[in-house]
Design goal:
14% strand; single chain; TIM Barrel; 11 helices; 255 residues; alpha/beta; binds pyridoxal-5'-phosphate; globular
């Protein structure tokens, strides 16, 4: 693995090139450093290298990790959130990228009202229509936006999507363009601003930036391949050990 500073240089030049190619400026795009499955030392290294946004996909994992990390970064939950973890999540995270149901939206708003938290939310949209992907179907987004706008304790900042993995990332372009167009329609329809578009990962961030991403969520390109299967599950569990086969079984046992 190359030194992180060198990798950051390469990522920076790709983002700058993608901005230049699409009439945007580098300052329009922020990087979410995705540290899931990595330990607190990786978060510390990221912060030392100037990252100010840490992305994690599980409440439980972030819960044990965050207290062991330097302060000074925003923690964003990029994975889906279940209603029964909202209270805990609001103690760790200020930003939520993958809100995918109205009940979760309402739960966040009611807990936030009670605790005085002021979370920023993005709605996940299943633009590609893949069955395996989470998020609102595009036709359900207006109702979710309307609901979000009615809740005073939260701010709807924008939208998030995940493109299918494509060996040729150019093929992901319609997904990212689709999210941008949906956002534009929501802004016009509701007379509101939804500035954030969370889209683009290691494989496809350059295309996402060209299509308007304001937050790219980067893990593998920065920190290398993540440990898989068993190792990953015991990391997720904060060394609680392994439990069952496959992520699904793990989630049911420990969530
Ligand atoms: C893991 C993850 C990422 C980062 O993926 P890489 O391909 O490693 O950059 C981005 N977004 C979400 C929602 C993730 O769970």
């Amino acid at each position: 693995m190359k030194p992180l500073s060198e990798i950051i240089g390469e990522v920076e030049s790709r983002i700058s090139a993608a901005c230049a190619a699409s009439g945007r400026t580098r300052g329009d795009v922020r990087i979410v450093a995705v540290t899931k499955t990595h330990g607190p030392e990786t978060v510390a290294e990221a912060i030392e290298h100037g990252f100010t946004i840490i992305g994690e996909n599980k409440v439980q994992e972030a819960e044990w990790k965050k207290p062991l990390c330097p302060s000074g970064a925003e923690w964003h939950l990029i994975g889906r959130l279940q209603r029964n973890k909202v209270r805990r999540a609001l103690e760790i995270f200020t930003h939520f990228h993958a809100i995918d149901s109205i009940p979760v939206l309402e739960k966040i708003a009611s807990v936030a009202e009670e605790t005085g938290a002021a979370p920023s939310l993005m709605l996940e949209v299943n633009v590609s229509g893949e069955r395996s992907k989470g998020g609102f179907a595009p036709q359900d987004v207006p109702a979710a936006v309307e609901k979000a706008l009615s809740l005073r304790s939260i701010t709807l900042e924008g939208f998030m999507t995940m493109a299918p993995f494509e060996p040729d990332p150019e093929k992901t372009r319609p997904v990212f363009a689709g999210l941008r167009e949906l956002r534009d329609r929501m802004e016009t329809g509701f007379g509101a601003r939804f500035p954030e578009l969370s889209m683009g990962m290691t494989n496809d961030y350059a295309v996402a930036v060209q299509e308007g991403a304001t937050l790219v969520r980067l893990g593998t390109v920065l920190f290398g391949e993540r440990p898989k299967a068993r190792v990953q599950r015991s990391v997720d569990a904060g060394d609680a050990g392994e439990s069952g086969e496959g992520g699904g079984a793990y989630d049911r046992v420990l969530d």
